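Notebook, p. 212. Picked up where the previous page left off. The plan for this session was modest: take the two constructs that came back from the sequencing core last week, fold each one, and keep the raw output in the notebook itself so nobody has to go hunting through shared drives later. Recording the first one now, exactly as returned: residue sequence, then the structure token string.
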Amino acid sequence: MLKRSLLTLSIITILAGCSLDGDDGAAGAAGPAGPTGGTGPSGQPGKNLPRDLNIEVVGRFNTGIYGKSAAEIVQFHKPSNSAFAINAAANQIEVINLTNLPVAAVGNGITDDSLTSVPFTFADTATVKNEAGADVSVALGEANSIAIFGDMLAIAVAAPVKTSNGVVLFYNLDATGNGSFVKAVAVGALPDMLTFTPDGSKVLVANEGEPDTDYLVDPQGSISVINMTDGVAADLAQTINFSSDMVFSSDLLAASDYDTDAKRKSLLMKAGVKFASPAGTTVAQELEPEYITVAADSKKAWVSLQESNAIGIIDLTDMTIEVKALGLKDWGQYLIDYTNEDEVASFATLANVYGMYQPDSIASYQWNGATFIVSANEGDSRDWDAYSEDIRAADIIDPDELNKTFSTELQALYDATGGDDGLGRLKVTAALVDPDNDGIVDKLYAYGGRSFSIWDQNINMVYDSGDDFGRISAAILGNNFNSAHTENKGDNRSDDKGGEPEAIDVGIIEDRTYAFIAQERSGDLFVYDVTNPFQAQFVSHYINRDFSADFELDDDLADPCDPAEGLDCTEVPLAGDLGPESIKFVPSADSPNGNPLLIIGNEVSGSVTVYQVTEL
């Protein structure tokens, strides 16, 4: 038995040392080809860029109140399919149901009034917590801005005296758009705009802090930050100020280089931030927050500081702000219509004349993971009884006004354009005239860029639409271009800020990102493809206005249509939309009719117009 086992083991050992595989044989001949497969489905046809868009009015609501800001800031509440619009004339919010919004254009978008509203009102007092945690009753003035996140509505309300602190009112909205009051939170002076962060964790408020017209009271501008926890606002807002919370990111500067107001002002002026105010005005009083947009990750925000020609970068983690000057537009490189005296569209380049961008509304979007800011470069001046920077170029050399002398080059341009009736008509700032005080004026600085711009997250310019708005509007509207929103009279804003780009928003349609910009005075709507911010392209122009209507109103009067002042609003209902103030883009996924929408509030005509925007 043992011998047999040893023999078996020996055989196994010998076999284990041998390879069991033989050599490979020669490759066989190739087999016959298989049958041809069937034709696959056709691919989608390619689309040229920029893509053509079809813009149509699909609904319109008219308050019937003219020249009193009866339709200003607009928002959209998806659960109730409602547009919300501030009616400052009645100090209420119009809730406009869009549930049955058609997909076909209305018969006449200019006179349509197919939409109706239900008023949303609020009390004239509210109770807020003070720093000690005690309840304080405060009087409420005019609503300035609204924001909606989910079913939460926030309303920014100024005090009856604008230099006093305002409040934010919070409401829970139901499926019909009705609101249940939650609480009020005190914020800074003149809360002019507010927005939720994309994650809903905060409400940011731009407290403009305008002075009274006599400059007896000039509150500080600031940013209020209201934290939200499980949809409930904190009792107290945090404040980001323009003094101790201001930072400068340059590694060449130490904190001690900007630890006083004088140091901060000096650094900002050297960077190009415009200061225009009475002597003794602090940086925090000078800077007036206008409009806020927030990054997609809710960690940073940007705020326009319009009069100062700057944008502030807000760090919501460190609760700081850095102010960046926007620079100047060289009108020697672009065409501009600078006078209203000829009453025609006429353009020229103007060497040594510059525009301050001074954006009002701003918005933001993502490209390649980075945030880009778009700005509507309206322009604005400080023009109060006790202080005004607002002058015409002719005033500079008028012996009874500033009594300065133009440089040889500027005087030659002045004469060549028609003198007092030419360049002399252009409104410019007195704050930047003759900075070295030698009596010689070399350059002029006008308000606004008459354009929209794209900026990177550090506020470096990526794109500007240049002179597009003026040239496109003139080509389409002829001598009606640069008309005011108070009468149909063409060219009567060329000497001021042109059509005044006021409202802006961005949205995605069929995988392309578009910027929508509306001009406050002339009413034009411009659409640009900004998908790649470095290759922005003009796409479309639209205007919902009839220039044949004969009317005149004055929105500075208590009665804008007062016949005793020679005014007549009889044909305003025939004129269409006047004074677009805000734009809200609604993506197709949220839209009541399944198409992307634009909701535009028009403050002078008191109308809210709903457009659908689709690819042709």
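Okay, moving on. Second construct, recorded in the same format:
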Amino acid sequence: MSEIKTENDAAVDSGHKEAEIGIRETEEASWRKESEKTSVLGIKIVLKIYDIFGKRVSLILVWFISLWIWIFSPELRKSSRIYLDRVSTFAASRGICLGRLSTRRHVYRVAENFFERLLTWKGVITAERLNSENHDHERMLARAREPDGAILIGAHVGNSEMLRGMNSSCSRKKVSSFMYARQFPRFMECIRTLNAESGLNIIMPEEITPATGIYLGEKLDAGEWIFIMGDRLLDGDTRSCEVEFLGRKARFPLGPWLLAGIFKKPVYTVHAVKINGAYQLFFREVGEVRFSRKNREQDLRSYVESYARFLEELLLQAPYEWFNFFDFWEEYETLEQSSGKKVSKHGRGSGEGGGKPGDESADAATKRI
């Protein structure tokens, strides 16, 4: 029987486990099939060089590592090229010239980002070092000092580990990061040893079950922030909707928005994106997610569309900050075929199970988060 694993909390009690729904039978998303390539020894060597010689020398080593990855990872180069061509074409349609975008530079940015994520967990890079416009940093810290729980939505754009740095600077607001990372045990073990005092609690479910929704609800009611990625599907049964993204239809998960609406908690989107060599914080206050019983899928879709527009604006400013290395636009079509289910125009799961559109508990919603 699967369980929800956390780094700082005990596993969910047995009463929560009784609501399990079993292993999914539909095709998993391609990113979940990736085998772990993390080298714990390699990470230790890079960090040791950093401790002795500093960041500049470490980045030289990172450059050579990225060159190795670029040469011997043809699928990664292919995915990078697909994305870079798409963002370049989209920018041109908006009258913006991004210049010649290179897969080599993109892959280097991946390696550099990974290194900076390690430094974040190590406590070297913190939220205090982020640039921000429109007082985003101050607004984020002000919200963090409030007692209410909230859902934070991010994406594989920029450095999401900056949340760890935020915890050390905002009165120790508890942030639980919801991660599906069972295929990366060595990396998770590594970051666990870098900073055991982090205020960030990592929730790693073996499977998404009704117990997951109950557990997240308890944390939200306790005043915690739950950080969830809002750009990847788990499999063909993931509740999702189709929206325009960088000039072509793509599918985004509805789960984070649906949970926020069910638990009546505010939503913030948080991204730390490197622009012109410095990290910029983007903190958006979406507010409480509202949807009607009759038009639930359409109402939720409007939030996803707004989020997709925001991601587009980020990527136009920093095109190399995209870290989804699979064909993002073809992925959902593959999953759709594997699930053998028809997706409605506005979203997956409209009216499933024979119930009314609005009749959904946290348990049921979590089955297709």
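Notes on construct two before I forget. Residues 296-317 form the longest helix (22 residues).
Flagging for discussion at group meeting.
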